[in-house]
Specification:
Layout: H1 4-10, E1 17-20, E2 24-28, E3 36-42, H2 56-75, E4 82-85, E5 101-105
Antiparallel strand pairs: 1-2, 2-3, 3-5, 4-5
The chain binds guanosine-5'-monophosphate (5GP) and zinc ion.
């Protein structure tokens, strides 16, 4: 499968990793939109949030990803707050078809998003 993030998971393409466990990895976004801009994703390939089917396995995976965000935010000293984003599908702004969460922090965020 020709998936950029699967290649980062396997180590074929390098990335600046900040966290990894048996289920998920996190690394710096190559085009950061904030002083801290990390991507958190499952090791296993899932195309997008829309492909998560509501099984117990999916629920555990989604919970694990959010739990990872919380722990990484503490490690990154984002106690003042941060934003977590999941772009889903073309209209949602998703450009890499491997489920991932953006963790953005280190500056004040604006709303509404673009
Ligand atoms: P999306 O637009 O799908 O929500 O987010 C994809 C993100 O992946 C973008 O923020 C983009 O900058 C980032 N990205 C694209 N290619 C690479 C890469 O090769 N390495 C890293 N670390 N990030 C990438
Ligand atoms: Zn993938």
């Amino acid at each position: 499968m020709d998936c950029l993030f699967c290649k980062i998971v396997s180590g074929e393409i390098p990335a600046r990793k900040v966290f990894e466990d048996e289920v998920a990895i996190a690394f710096h976004d190559i085009h950061p939109q904030a002083p801290v801009h990390l991507l958190i994703l499952p090791r296993k390939h899932v195309a997008s949030l829309a492909q998560m089917g509501g099984t117990d396995e999916d629920k555990i995976l989604l919970g694990h990803l959010l739990d990872s965000v919380i722990r990484i935010a503490v490690e990154q000293r984002l106690a003042n707050g941060y934003r977590t984003v999941i772009n889903t599908g073309k209209a949602g702004g998703q450009t890499v078809d491997h489920l991932h969460l953006h963790l953005l922090g280190g500056r004040a965020m604006e709303w509404p998003p673009g």
